[in-house]
């Protein structure tokens, strides 16, 4: 498995696993630095050896030239030309390979070393001031305490700012090295193969790989620019409102606590910083010893079962933000812990069910939403898609940046509202000058946004409902037509994949990992465009077995107990947790199956039979017994749910509780 993405939200949690991920990225860049230094050293040796070879060849040719045989003289001339050409290309090696690699090593990796030192310095500075604050006596005057709290808060914000910048820089260099290190090597290979006349056939065999590598490098560069802008935008939003991205979970709560370890008299006690994870349902607290200043080594995990939690007053212990934990595993033993701040203290009290009430505490789940469009594949929607495509092909097929340049949001919304309103007169966009091309393309992308290797895609497309497949085929044919004019509009298949990948296959959560997966979305769209005639015209001959997606996607009953109004981005599912813990399948087929599966929404009514009993937990759900028959069953917009009718009442049904008839 490759390197884990560094999530900006983890900068605020600063967990041991996050520090371990940072170490992995730093180790990878250190390995790259050593590789470039060794390559530079060996390259200089190669150039020197080549120069010595050239001098020996020139002396050998001069010796042969002293003979009076004419053909020997001709051989000398050829050798001299060859030697001159060799020396010329050897000089080019220094320019095309050695200097770019050395420049990347000194400028990028050298700058990262300075960033790392600053990050480690800020870490030491922040945690030292935090411990100093927590060790302050509560008997000090309130202004002194407030001033100390303010200073630590300022230092915390500065530390988190540095953490965000360092994580962003780490990932940027990881992505940048993919083309800035490989591109000089490609130029070197091209130089070497240009020189070797005897190796012409070898160079010819290499040509297809060279072209493919050039395309891959350019695509990687393009994706890097798009990914960097997405990452910077996400970092900006997290920086503006870090609390909204705080990693909260209905299952557990985690963070740092200082644990009081009591020693036999007269040694007193000591406070040890531990990273704690509290599993709410089982009331289990997992504690891991971790100190940023000791090399970041993770100690052993200790788990205890919590019986009760009580706030500890400053009258009993001269420390703030303390809690007394009654442990079930050790009757009569009370464990005293200290939170990092007042807000952190309240969060731990609420998570552990502390006896003292906590007010004004909220858990936020931030969901980035796009403008909602009532996109239906009815006659009006189908007419809008055809009208838009006709106008784009007639008025803007040769426009540079077609589909990449976006229109004004208010105009796009106005056009959409007008076109999908059944009561309004239909507007011919091909003849109307009131709507520019970029507004039409943006409206088409927005309208289609709620709906979305060759055999796998072919089979999955033909599992879509007829209407969905028709409009997807219409769009892919149009995009193929756009790509055919790429010399004028500069929109190649790869560029269109970059534009329509996020539009048709937008992820449900905004994380760095999701941004890094954008390249898979682009690949799927590229396949659909390049093979649209086969995929949308012919039925698939045979289909591969579907992956075990239904098992992974089937929600447990427990996952449906959460409020719909504040539904989190991920629900508790033990099988899904296995995926998150490293068993994630990287198969492109599974990725396609997951995303195209979103489009596969049934538009016909069917019957279903209950295979498990269920008691409704919400007014919108149905209660039923084993064997009950549901009528008019359709796919719900709620993931993992169906809609059906039972005894005259229509409501939601858990999808894994019924079988279709």
The percent range for helix content is: 40-55%
CATH C-level class of the largest domain = Mainly Alpha
Major beta sheet, strand line-up: 1-2-3-4-5-6
Q: What is the tally of helical segments? A: 20
Number of strands: 11
Strand content: 5-15%
Concise structural overview:
The protein is α+β, with helices and mostly antiparallel strands and 661 residues long.
Walk me through what this model shows.
With 661 residues, the protein is an alpha+beta fold. It folds into four domains: 9-245, Substrate Binding Domain Of Dnak, Chain:A, Domain 2 (Up-down Bundle); 252-352, PH-domain like (Roll), CATH 2.30.29.30; 379-537, Rho GTPase activation protein (Phosphatidylinositol 3-kinase, Chain A); 549-584 and 602-660, SH3 type barrels (Roll). Helices cover 54% and strands 12% of the residues. The protein is built from 20 helices and eleven strands. It has helices spanning 9-13, 16-65, 70-134, 142-180, 182-195, 200-240, 342-352, 379-395, 409-419, 437-448, 454-461, 466-484, 486-489, 493-504, 512-516, 518-530, 532-537, 549-553, 574-583, 588-596, and strands at residues 252-262, 269-279, 284-290, 298-312, 322-327, 334-338, 606-610, 629-635, 641-646, 649-654, 658-660. It has a six-stranded antiparallel beta barrel with strand order 1-2-3-4-5-6. A five-stranded antiparallel sheet has the order 10-9-8-7-11, with no helix packed on it. A hairpin with a 4-residue loop joins β2 (269-279) and β3 (284-290). The chain is flat. The chain starts with 8 loop residues before the first helix and ends with a strand. Mean pLDDT is 75; it is low at 67-84, 357-372 and 544-604.
